Amino acid sequence: MVDPAGRIVARLRRPTSAGDPDKLRAQVVEVAAGLAAQHPVTAVGIGAAGWIDAGRSVVRYGPHLPWRDEPLRDAVAAAVGLPVVVENDANVAAWAEYRFGACAAADPGATMVMVTVGTGVGGGIVLGGRLYRGAQGIAAELGHVRVVPDGRPCPCGRRGCLERYASGTALVEAARAGARADPAAAADLLRRAGGDPAAVSGPMVTAAAGAGDPVARAAFAEIGGWLGAACADWTQILDPHTFVVGGGVADAGELLLAPARAAYAEQLGRRGRYPAATVTAAVRGNDAGVVGAADLARGG
After folding, report:
1. What is the rounded average pLDDT for all residues in the chain?
2. pTM above 0.70, yes or no
3. Of 27, 83, 101, 199, whose CB has the highest number of CB atoms within 10 Å?
4. Which family is annotated (predicted)?
């Protein structure tokens, strides 16, 4: 339950039935109905990981969920008797940062690009003060822009996508490779992993990098470099006011943002002589999706 100022005033949580589309839909209905029974709810906003149609009603494809052409809006609306809006999860997070987070003080007509760096790389674009969805509703899949021709295979079916080089998955892969190549330099990282490079996890890399481990820091520099270079490319297309970086990996702060900013400045080339977007951290954290979905359902 989110108030008009973007404050969360009540929560209900349930474990996700990620393998059963019917149970998952029923859980969404249960949570929405439970909150509506306790509070003066006027609309329901849903942030779902996947491709959402232009009508903001159908989950066309969920890469990590069992939904395929799932008419989620109508199913929930029929069950709870309220207007429902379904949006992509990165889009709702971007909207929350624009309205109530990192860009809350920006001009209402500003353009913002949000990049979410987690297991993969997601994105959301607010263009001239409006959330940009594209013709089919599937815009801003920033993690699936190809950065390396015939590069690493991606679960989306393409090769060389950005998320294969700038995500939490890429961070762990780089750290494991570094630990195998130079165990002495990765002493702290390997200590956390029980001596086994294959056991290295994302939180271990972040902790070791924070403690100064050279291999862990190099892994952050690698993915930050890819992220910064991508921001320079997007600047040529969109010329935004701000890039906002969020997601679980971005919680590492300057470990990721410092190399990203350095690569961004370098890759801007002559464009860097003129005013260009700033690169800043998201501030709403894991609440961003909840807040953004609610505000968009309210008509934000």
Report:
1. 95
2. yes
3. 101
4. Belongs to the ROK (NagC/XylR) family.
